[in-house]
């Protein structure tokens, strides 16, 4: 069999708007673009590492370039064993794309999933001045679900202003910005605005404090930073309503499947999320979306010039590509 040949390079993605959350801001997202060649097959992968988890584009590149791959893309356990999550994510996605292309089947079909059962995805609005956030919501138009980043103050005023122009479903995400006491006070005020759930209100690491918050508000609580991989979930059972699964946190497709099935066994709802990334990684996650309750796969919405095309949207619902593997294609360079 031909050898597996791997290249990894940084990918810069200019954004439509500067994207700000409680702890950081960016106008150009950087990810690691993985290209895997096996004979005549060219497969794609991507990783969007975050310094929040002590990984970077550079660490992904150096780690994967040092990896010996051999000649069998189906040897997933051996190829992925021991890699940190962001490195494992990039290689895992590329291997699944390669396998799908080898058998000429889309990933959702290899997993036995029904592509008509994909959920709606939210569209994320980053932190800015209230009038800017309202203007961004107006740009969204009739998209049925939005997620509002909070954590910089004026939370009640922000949601109140947005509710004057938007009647769809609203989720909020504090990215660990609040204390438990502040979270309860804010969420009780937000209850009148019909909030679907609140994501990661307090710093990760204290599930019992999440339980304390959940017992004092009617708004469901969903984790993100507290739910990196399947090993984190037992401690969260009974403390929160759901978890956010991101491929780059848990190590790719295989790690995400492990998280989803573990969460179901613990009676936790599941959301599929993403970082700011290209269509490669967002589409890889989208192939799993028939298995989950919620999706926040809006990377392609946020990127101004994405060099790749994959999943699409129909009135907010994820539409999976029919092509083999991920079904992601590279766009022709702009003239």
Structure write-up:
By secondary structure, the chain is of the alpha/beta class. It folds into two domains: 4-104, Enolase-like, N-terminal domain (Enolase-like, domain 1); 110-330, TIM Barrel, CATH 3.20.20. Helix content is 33%, strand content 25%. It has 13 helices and 15 strands. The strands form four sheets. Strands 4-5-6-7-8-9-10-11 form an eight-stranded parallel β-sheet. Strands 1-2-3 form a three-stranded antiparallel β-sheet. It has a two-stranded antiparallel sheet with strand order 12-15. Strand 7, helix 8 (207-214) and strand 8 form a beta-alpha-beta unit. Helix 5 (130-140) packs parallel to helix 6 and helix 7 packs parallel to helix 8 (207-214). The longest helix is centred in the N-terminal third of the chain and has 19 residues, at 85-103.
């Amino acid at each position: 069999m031909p050898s597996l040949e791997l290249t990894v390079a940084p990918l810069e993605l200019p954004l439509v708007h500067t994207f700000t959350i409680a702890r950081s801001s960016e106008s150009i997202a950087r990810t690691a673009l993985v290209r895997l060649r096996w004979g005549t097959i060219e497969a794609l992968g991507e990783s969007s590492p975050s310094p929040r988890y002590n990984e970077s584009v550079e660490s992904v590149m150096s780690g994967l370039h040092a990896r010996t791959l051999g000649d069998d893309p189906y040897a997933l356990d051996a190829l992925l064993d021991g890699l940190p999550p962001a490195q494992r994510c990039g290689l895992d996605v590329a291997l699944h794309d390669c396998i799908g292309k080898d058998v000429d089947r889309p990933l959702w079909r290899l997993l036995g999933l029904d592509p008509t059962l994909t959920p709606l995805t939210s569209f994320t609005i980053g932190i800015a001045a209230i009038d800017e956030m309202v203007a961004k919501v107006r740009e969204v138009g009739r998209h049925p679900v939005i997620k509002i980043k909070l954590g910089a103050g004026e939370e009640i005023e922000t949601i109140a202003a947005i509710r004057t122009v938007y009647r769809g479903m609203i989720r909020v995400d504090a990215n660990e910005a609040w204390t438990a006491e502040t979270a309860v006070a804010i969420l009780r005020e937000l209850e009148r605005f019909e909030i679907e759930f609140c994501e990661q209100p307090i710093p990760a690491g204290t599930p019992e404090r999440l339980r304390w918050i959940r017992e004092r508000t009617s708004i469901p609580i969903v984790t993100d930073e507290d739910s990196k991989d399947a090993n984190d979930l037992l401690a969260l059972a009974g403390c929160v309503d759901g978890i956010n699964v991101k491929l780059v946190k848990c190590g790719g497709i295989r790690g995400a499947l492990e998280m989803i099935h573990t969460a179901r066994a613990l009676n936790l709802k599941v959301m599929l999320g993403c970082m700011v990334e290209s269509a490669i990684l967002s589409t890889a996650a989208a192939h799993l979306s028939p298995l989950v309750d919620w999706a926040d796969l809006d990377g392609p919405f946020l990127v101004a010039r994405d060099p790749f095309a994959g999943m699409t949207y129909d009135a907010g619902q994820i539409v999976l590509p029919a092509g083999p593997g991920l079904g992601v294609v590279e766009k022709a360079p702009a003239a």
